[in-house]
Amino acid sequence: MPEYRRTALAAFLFMFYSANLALAQTPKEQWMLGPFERPADSHPIIKPQPEATFTDPITQKPVHWEALHTFNPAAVVRNGKVIVLYRAEDNSGTMAIGEHTSRLGMAESDDGIHFKQMSEPVFYPANDGQKSREWPGGVEDPRIAETEDGMYVLTYTQWNRQTYSVGVATSRDLTHWTKYGPAFGTSGKYASLKYKSAGIVTQLKDGHLVAARIHGKYWMYWGEVKVGLASSTDLIHWTPVEDKSGTPLLLLATRSGKFDSALPEVGAPPLLTKDGILLLYNGKNSDTDGDKSLQAGTYSTGQALFSADHPEKLLHRNDTPFLTPKMPFERSGQYAAGTTFIESLVYFHQKWFAYYGCADSFVGVVFSGQ
Hints:
The protein is mostly beta strands. Helices cover 8% and strands 37% of the residues. Strands 12, 13, 17, 18, 19, 20 and 21 form a 7-stranded mixed sheet that branches. It has a 4-stranded antiparallel sheet with strand order 3-4-5-6, with no helix packed on it. It has a 4-stranded antiparallel sheet with strand order 7-8-9-10, with no helix packed on it. It is globular.
């Protein structure tokens, strides 16, 4: 082989193995999903399209709805394709995190890696019953669960730049949605609670992920900093599981010296497995007592396992993340400390695909054959 070809091959192999090093070095316990790897030519699979415009139903003016950032994706498999709903930020507001208006765009893929984005958003603030909760901040950070009869249930953050909560919406086609408002209702003890990041427990049936019933109920893990649990009989109205004092039961909290030392936060919709309920969750590293191998503020992704018979009972929790920001696009953007912020998991072509937000700016993917 000519010397220049050997040099090029060596450089490629070095880049490939470096990109996947964080995944390969993470010890895998039997209950964990993976190992995961990045595509060989790892790059953002969804990026902003500054030229895309949309007539906003509230202002009645055209807006560049995904001009700045596209990140934090939900995903499902539909009609033989992976469909991703991703958070897109326009160029309105001030140049600060959370100060633009967010809408949800849609992209589809035949292989789970290469996506085509739609020209207009499919979910957004409008002149509807949720306007006061969603305008001008928008709709953020979606997760999706599908029922056995083909209904899609969306959990997302409603943000009006004053307060936030988990909103619930349903659809049969992923483009026409019915909004139901906050998951915990608009009256009662949780009406003023600030809460976000909610994933409904799913299970793999006949090669397809669907919402799972346990003891006749659906279950949802929710929250950041303090991760809790809620149950429902209809997937729309949810009741937090409480401790003996009548406050939300605490399932996951911060851990000094670990990747989740600043906060844990619910990631992809949890998966019911033979070992229990598997939660892929995101952890933020503290700038004072965190994991010294990670930059302060970094978001990485770990795994936790809960009992299938008692969804509130934690069985295992890994100490080291299986995915951390390593690639340039995972560390460059509006969140410079870096994020690999997982919000979705699908089973497609006999593999697991996990989609994640990169530095609050792009969408990335990792996959596993196990």
